[in-house]
Design brief:
Helix content: over 70%
Number of helices: 17
Number of strands: 0
CATH architecture: Up-down Bundle
Radius of gyration: 21 Å
Shape: globular
Number of domains: 1
Distance between the termini: 21 Å
CATH superfamily: MFS general substrate transporter like domains
Order of helices and strands: HHHHHHHHHHHHHHHHH
Structural class: mainly alpha
Strand content: under 5%
CATH class: Mainly Alpha
Length: 437
Amino acid sequence: MTPIDALAPQPTLARNRNFRLLWIGEGVSVLGSMTTTVIFPLMAVTQFDAGPFWMGILAGAIWLPWLVLGLFAGTWVDRSDPRRIMMRADLVAAVVVATVPVAWALGVLTLPHLVLTALGLGGCTVFFRTAYAAFVPRVVANPDLERANARIYGTESAMQIGGPGVGGLLVQLFSAAFAVVIDVLSFVVSWVCLARMRPEELGPAPEKPAPQSMLRQVREGISIVARDPYLRFFSIQGGLSNFALTGFWALMVLFMVRDLDLEPGAVGVVMALGSTGGLLGATLATRTTQRLGNAGALRWLQVLGGPVAILEGLAWPGIGVVLIPVGAFLVGVGVVGANVVRSSFRVRYTPAELLGRTTATSSVLNFGTMPLAGLVAGGLGTWIGVRETILLMAAIHALVSLSVFFGPYRTGRDLPDQPMARWTSGSMATARKSSVT
C-alpha cells in the first residue's frame, strides 16, 4: 500500500507545470461541453419541435453510461495509467461529437442522432472523470489539494458562465451545428494539454492491486463505499440531489423558450448569469473551510444551495425571468462550494490504490440516478406540466440538501483527517488471498 502522503513530491502549485496543463485543458474542455449543454436542447426544441418526453430522454442519455460502465471504469483506472485513459477518452469524444455537424451538413441529422451522440459522449465522460479523480493526487501535492480543487472548480464554473452564453449566441448568429464544433475543438485542446505533460514530474503511481478478477475488484469498491459512513452518505445524498437537479434542468430550456418566450441568445445569457454562483462557491470553499472546518462548511454550503432552487420554478415572463439566474446563482454557490470541500476530503481520506474503484462506485450512485431523472421529468412534464415538474424537483433538492443535519457530520467542525486504514488493510488482505487461491 502507498499512503497518500507519499504521493507528494510534486512542486508547489505556483511552479507546477503539469497542473497548469491539466487545469487549462480541463477548463477549455468544460467551455466546449457547456456550449453543448445549451445547444443540444435548443436544437431539439427549435429544429425538431421536441416536447417534454424527448427533452427528458436527451437529458438522461448523457448520464446513462454511468449505470452501465461506471463500476468497471473505476477498476480499469486502478489497473491502468489514468493519463492515457483521459487522452483516449478525449479523442473518442471529439469524433463522436463531430458526427453532429457532419450529419447536419449532409442533411441527415435527426433527434435520435442527438440522443445517441449524448450517449457516446457520456461514455467518454465516465472514463475521463473517473481517471481524472485518480490522477489529480499525482499532479498536486497533498497540502495544495484545497487550492488546486478550488482553481479547478472555479475555472469550470467560469467556463459554465461563458459556455451557455457562447452557445446561445452562436445558435442565433449561425447554426446549432456550427456551434457544436466548439466542443469538438475543446476535446482536442484537452488531449494536447495532457500529451504535453512531463510524466517524470508526476508523483509516484500508487501500488497496483494484487491480480484478481475485475468483478471481485468491483465488489470490493462497492463494499468499501457501503461500509464507510462518510462515503456512503455522500454517495446517497449526491444521487438524490443529482436526480432532482437533472430533472429540473431537463425541462429548463423548454420552460424558458415556451413559457417565458425567450430567444436562444437570451436563454444562453440567463444560464450564464446563473452559473456565476459556481465561481463564487469555488472561491469561498477554501475560506469557509478555514473558518468553519470542512464539516461545518459542508453543512452551511448545502443549506445555502438547497431551498433557493424553488425560485427558478416561480419565474414568469418579463421581469420575473430574473428569478432564474438569482436562484441558479445561489444553488451554484452551495453546490460547487460543497463539491470542492468533498473532493479534497475524499482524496485525503481514500487510500490511493482504491481511489479509482471508490470514486467509480460513488459516481454510479451520484450519476446513475440522472438518466432516470430525465425520463421521470419528461413524463411528469407531459402529465402535470413543465412548471409544476420543475417546482417538484426543486423541492426534492431542497429536502436532500437539508439532510446534512441528519448525516454523519451533522455536528462537529471537521471530517476525519486520517485515511480509512481500517478498510484498506482488510481489502488488501482479501486481494492477496484471492491472488493466491
